[in-house]
Amino acid sequence: MRGWLKRAHGLRVTLWTLIVPPSVWAVHFLFSYLWAAVSCAKIGRWARFPTVFAIGTVIALVVILLAGLIAWQQSRTPGDPPPHNEGTDIDRLRFLAFSTLLLSGLSFVAVLFTALPVLMLGDCR
Amino acid sequence: MSLHAQDDPTLRAAQEDRLRAVWKPPSGWFFRWTDVNNNRIGVWYTLTAFGFMLFAGVLALIMRTQLAVPNNDLVSANTFNQLFTLHGSMMMFLFAVPMFEAVSIILLPQLLGARDLPFPRLSAFGYWSFLLGGVFVSGSIFFNAAPDGGWFMYPPLTTRTDLSGLGADIWMLGLSFIEVSSVAAAVELIVGVLKCRPPGMRLNLMPLYAWYILVVAVMILFAFPPLIAGDLLFEMERLLEWPFFDAARGGDPLLWQHLFWIFGHPEVYIVFLPSIALFAMLIPTFAQRHLLGYPWIVLAAVGTAFLSFGLWVHHMFATGLPKISLAFFSAASEAVAIPTGVQIFAFIATLWAGKVKWSTPLLYASGSLAIFVIGGLTGVMVAVAPFDWQAHDTYFIVAHLHYVLIGGTLLPLFGGLYYYWPLITGKKLSDRMGRAAFWIMFVGVNLTFFPMHLSGLEGMPRRVFTYPAELGIGWLNLASTAGSYLFAAGVLVLVIDLALSPTRPKAARNPWNAGTLEWLAHPDDEDWGIRSVPLIESRYPIWDQKDFVAKVDEGRFFLPDAEEGRRETIITSVLDARPVSVIRLGTPSVKPMITAVALGAVFILTTYHLYLLSAISGVVTLACVLWWLWDTAEIPEKPEKPIGHGMHMPLYSAGPAAPGWWAMFITMMADATAFSGLVFGYYFYWTIHSDFGAGFDGPGSAAPIMALGLSLASWVGTVVAREVHARGQVMIARILLVAGTIAAIASLFAGLRCLDGLDPKANVYPAIVWVLTIWTVVHAAIGAIMQLYTLARSLAGRMTPSHDADLRNITVYQHFYALTASVTYLTIGLFPETGL
């Protein structure tokens, strides 16, 4: 695990990787909305605790967690001195990685928020 | 050119003369309006948007006067409908969004140390489109023809021509035109932030304003197109009777609500984030320290942008959707409070940690945050669906949205006005008048809108032109009216302060002692933007980099000269802002203005059903665009030029290194989003209506597959043409372009064959097939025009294997076209037209 995490330092970080966690939230959200809309309209009911929904949610959370883990590693890249506000390669990497980490946190919570109603509501009324 | 050379004052003076000559604005009573410099376009834009704001504010005052007492008859119900519709529409489309674009057009080049934005003529085009469309929409009220269906124009009230008149068309077509200009501004701003930063300004050193602008411009790209798609369906129904929102013929009015609010909710954040961005600039200045939590602010901006696209159904809680769907949107609506809170705490922490210099802009910032937070808290309340069912369409909502928009957009902009006025005019505004205006407005806002919470909870519905005395809300309404006049008085003080500005002396340079790049501006500013493009090593270079201002002024950084007599700026890489090329910028021209007038004529003539004239205007618009484009992507007289410090930069770039490629890519993202709005419509009908398409023949599979094959042939032809052209096989590339054009035109006819025997007026199924097909064949036609244009460029010697930007740009278009054609023809040809 540790060796694997070390390799995270070598991964490329761009504006695209920054938006991976919130994009996962967006896909999960869209998936939840469409799933509910189609199953309510076509089948007429929203089965309590549908397996597909649960699996989708777990996948989303795992992807966000992974993105967060990689970002956490990268945000601790050693080298330049704190406070890491300089125009160096490492500080730019640390900034993008730390922002990705923060977005992972927000996206994780937001996915949980989206999943919660399914625990409470079981039908299409 | 070494550092040493700049020690010579005569050289510097000669450079300044050359720069001054190159950046000289056009003069003459007409030609001065053909200017494209961001300094001037931005100011016109800002003043125009400010004027529309005052106009819409007067409309609000008339409404409040009507509502001051029960059973009032100052205005008729019909006029009142026009008043509230135009007030809301103007504040959103003609003030809040354009104001953000206007301010960004002024500030962004200064913040990024660029001479101008990458496409100055596009900014000018956006401005003229905005002015024309804005005057058209707002002027309608003087002819008793203003839209009257509420700013979100719900059908069927607005689609039935017997229930609503010309106003609905004016709204749809006039504002569609303005949406085009918003997308144009978004393209300009995204490319500006990503590609026009000064060397060294890596992503982590970018001013937070630029981060916010990047995020907001991307939001515009995904939020506005669904509305454009909705507008298209809406006008098809009004002008041609295609039943997209008519339940009797299989349509569904809820589709409009979806498309409108997929735009409408992100819109709230599109107008809020840029105002908050002003705080991110002024708070460090008045705290005299770096902003705390830079990545946290980026989290807030990006997080809010994403979550804001998961909120739209909270405007539709009362439409009878399944509770589980409502709950998803309720959850996202609660979640968005997290990033919003984070940025407010970051601001508070910065002030706490700094040495605060209490000033007028800071007063506006802190006061507006207080108002915004109240609106945010009622927002969390109405995000709870059961509470919303009680408060929906009452004055409680009116109170909530005005607290949010005044605290989150209007007052921050006024704060920004006091902060940045010295940057634009070189003069400070009056602190005394500014503070007086603030307190009058602050009391006015609360007196106007706080009682509305109560009148709403007492049961006063929004959008009523009067109410009975028995409801017992007379005194609450009177208080609101008094407050609105107080607020207007505050605005008046502010306007007088602005009007007195020309009589005041110039202020010192950088009067607030700010640390960010835009404050390099000199009170007696030149038109060249920045004397030399600096090397950035800090987020606050004026504070942190030694002798920074003097070095910029003495031209010791990059591009201190205009040897070839051209307007130029530096293009850098996206992540690390390494210089990659120098581009030549557009110079003053009548082309943007004429193109805007021609395009405006298309929309305005369509409103009055003058289709032939409208079609002629469309052809003129196309001709103008081609005329405009012909001068672009020019082959430079030499391959590269020195920019100082021994660096040489190419003068030509193509593909992803070129701003034009990015502009095409970004425009096509918006185009694809609009298209996905139409596709959403198709699948929405299929989901909701089990009888979708039942009893109506579809296009079959043969014609769509044929059209798809030809479309893909056109795409492959272009892609292969690009490859062989780059290898020097110019003749083969030309033949391939001709073949691609023929395939595109053939796909157009094959596409139209899909529509044989389908009557779009009969039912929503043939109607949506028509719309998807028309959308696709129009794109085929545009693709063919691009292919012929590129061919002409090649024949005219304006495109060669080493200078092939045109061909690379149209290939991007063709990628998106291939996607569009695939989705359309597979959907209409293969997807089961009847429900599962």
What's the quick description here?
Chain A is mainly alpha-helical and 125 residues long. Chain A has helices at residues 2-7, 15-18, 20-42, 51-74, 89-120.
How would you describe this structure to a colleague?
The complex is a heterodimer of chains A (125) and B (836). Chain A is an all-alpha fold and 125 residues long. Chain A has one domain. Chain A has helices at residues 2-7, 15-18, 20-42, 51-74, 89-120. Chain B is built from 24 helices and 4 strands. Chain B folds into 2 domains: 45-108 and 115-502, Cytochrome c oxidase-like, subunit I domain (Cytochrome C Oxidase, Chain A, Up-down Bundle), CATH 1.20.210.10; 658-830, Up-down Bundle (Four Helix Bundle (Hemerythrin (Met), subunit A)). Chains A and B meet through helix 3 and helix 5 of A and helix 8 and helix 9 of B.
SS-based class of chain B: mainly alpha
Uncertain parts of chain B: none
Count of discrete alpha- or pi-helical segments spanning 4 or more residues of chain B = 24
Q: What share of the residues of chain A lie within helices?
A: over 70%
| Portion in strands of chain A | under 5%
Transmembrane segments (chain A): 15-37, 49-73, 93-121
Protein name (chain A): Heme/copper-type cytochrome/quinol oxidase subunit 2
Keywords (chain A): Membrane, Transmembrane, Transmembrane helix
Main location (chain B): membrane
